[in-house]
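ok so heres the complex, two chains, lmk if somethin looks off
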Amino acid sequence: MSDSIYLIYSLLSLSPWIASLIGTLIYQNAKKETLLQREKAHSVLNGDKLSTLSKPLGGREIKEFTTVMASVVMSPSWIQITIGRIVTLFGGEINVFTKIIDWARREAKQRLREDISKAGFDEVINLRLETSIITKTNGGNDKTSGVEIIAYGTAIKY
Amino acid sequence: MIVNVGNVVQPPITMPFTNIETIPGQTIVQSMGVVTGSTVRAKNIFKDIGAGLKNIVGGELKAYTELLQESRNQSLYRMLADAQARGANAVVNVRFTTSSVAGGAAELLAYGTAVIVAPMNIQ
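and the predicted structre for the whole thing:
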């Protein structure tokens, strides 16, 4: 009797970790694949619409402008946080976190691209990227963590 | 003036602001000093619990993305109100910076230079 209760208890306590494993392997990869398709639709590799220059190239005249912003909060899964903690013991690059931050930046930039093409702007100049950490701290044990990215710039029409 | 990503209210003050050094097509007549606007905002406990559950699988935490959008609009509004109070009609070189002061809360600071601009053909 007590054995079966223990079994049920251990299965219940393991279930978020199983969900985390499935989420890391399937959900995150599916989302990244969708992001890649969205980036391809905006032909990022030949002629990106975003630039960090303060003036449009070729001295073109700016007819219309507006400030645009996009933000995203990404979080690593429990599995990734655990891997990150283990790698921290040995030092070196923490690959799981690099991937999450890279994903968040790509997502924020892609939102800017979709946003300006919907509003009919040609280009974003003077793009800036801001990063910071968001955490929910209810005592020391809380695992919730995320990285917030804000991408902003000036959208222009030639 | 803002193109928003989500369903967020636009600031009621309509004043041109850019993060480049000039307002295109206009010339800067006078600088009115640095204007800032900042806000520290948090989501409610239910949204925090939802974000905590989403955190298990990783990926985007939509509640916190929303929180950022709300707070950046609030800080922009405060910055523009500051500029308006100084009698400026545009803000140039706007910068945003974020930090986390407390758990579950986000601080967003917007700052820039308030200026008086005039159309180029007047001078």
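quick notes: Chain B touches chain A at residues 1-5, 16-21, 23-25, 48, 51-52, 54-61, 64-65, 67-69, 72, 94-100, 102-104, 106 (CB under 8 Å). thats all i got rn
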